[in-house]
Amino acid sequence: MNSSECSCKARSDTTTCPLCDAGAPPAIQRPIDAVYAAPVSQSLPIARNRAIYILLALFLGIFGAHNFYAGYQGRAICQLLITLLLGWLLIGVMITGLWALVEMITVETDASGVQMV
After folding, report:
1. Which terminus of the chain is more exposed, N or C, with fewer CB under 10 A?
2. Which residues pair with 53 in a beta bridge?
3. What angle do CA 102, 70, 91 make, to 5 degrees?
């Protein structure tokens, strides 16, 4: 804290400045609830069901439904676009079908990192 008559630092535990003997301004008292606020409660993330994820990947995996369920929006939109744009050539269905099969076996967490149960 600066004292009012000089540019030196007055300590808050003394009543006068050690260099010029000027009086230090009183310390500002804060209300106790401003210092110790109640913690903000955060909701726990909901664990996704792995069986539902597997069933969605098995039956609607070429459309990315399992990724929409798990929160992987980017993957899901990519699978949906590949199927819609290249599906009539059957190459799109084969690509996204294989992709969904691999994800059905390997993915164990949702997009927020919570383990599926």
Report:
1. C
2. none
3. 40
**CA torsion angle for 17, 19, 22, 27 (degrees, to 10)?**
-20
CA–CA gap between residue 23 and residue 39 (Å, rounded): 38
pLDDT tier at 96, thresholds 50, 70, 90:
very high
Specify the pLDDT at position 41: 73
Q: What is the DSSP letter of 71?
A: T
Q: Which amino acid is at 46?
A: I
Q: Which residues contact 84 (CB under 8 A, 6 or more apart)?
A: 92
Q: Over the chain, what is the mean pLDDT?
A: 83
Of 70, 54, 69, nearest in space to 115 by CA: 70
Position 69 scores a pLDDT of 97
- For 61, residues 6+ apart whose C-beta sits below 8 A from its C-beta are 79, 96, 97, 99, 100, 101, 103, 104
